[in-house]
Write a structure and sequence with these properties.
seven-stranded mixed β-sheet; about 25% helix; 4 helices; about 160 residues
Length: about 160
């Protein structure tokens, strides 16, 4: 995962591939620090980061494990900081009766390991159960990969 040691000029990457393609030195200079986290219990999770960015992690697990991961991140978000976000970069399945061939293939591959791709509604269910609020799903027309933007639940 990625954590933000400072809010990088108020800008959030628009492209899910933008940050990982940077060198570790470039990411650090921009305010991002790469960390390794054991997702089962979120060991080594740094508290109070403004942005937690998860790329192709949530689709690896069943709902109960995802809710646990997201609960830890919800607890780690700083209090009284409206800009604090959990950004989840994943394949977002369409609600249409016939998903794209790429989404179908990925979902079939994920089911073999007990994981799954999710629709926007499915993301909203696990995010809400974890104590977060789904702010918006950012998707480019014609693409299956998107960013699920989450914040702390209000009140």
């Amino acid at each position: 995962g990625y954590i933000n040691k400072r809010f990088a000029g108020g800008k959030v990457p628009k492209d899910g591939h933008w940050l990982p393609q940077r060198s570790a030195g470039e990411r650090w200079a921009m305010g991002f620090k790469t960390i390794q986290v054991l997702w089962a219990n979120c060991q080594t999770l740094h508290l109070g980061a403004l942005i937690y960015y998860l790329r192709h992690i949530i689709h690896d697990y069943q709902d109960s494990v995802c809710i646990n991961i997201l609960k830890h991140l919800a607890d780690a978000l700083p209090e009284n900081e409206p800009r604090a976000r959990v950004l989840i970069c994943e394949q977002i399945m369409s609600d249409k009766a016939t998903p794209s061939p790429v989404t179908t293939a990925m979902d079939m591959a994920m089911v073999n390991i007990g994981a799954k791709e999710r629709t926007e509604a499915a993301f909203e269910r696990i995010v809400t159960a974890a104590g977060l609020r789904l702010v918006k799903c950012h998707r480019q027309l014609g693409h299956d990969i998107g960013i699920v933007e989450c914040s702390k639940q209000l009140g």
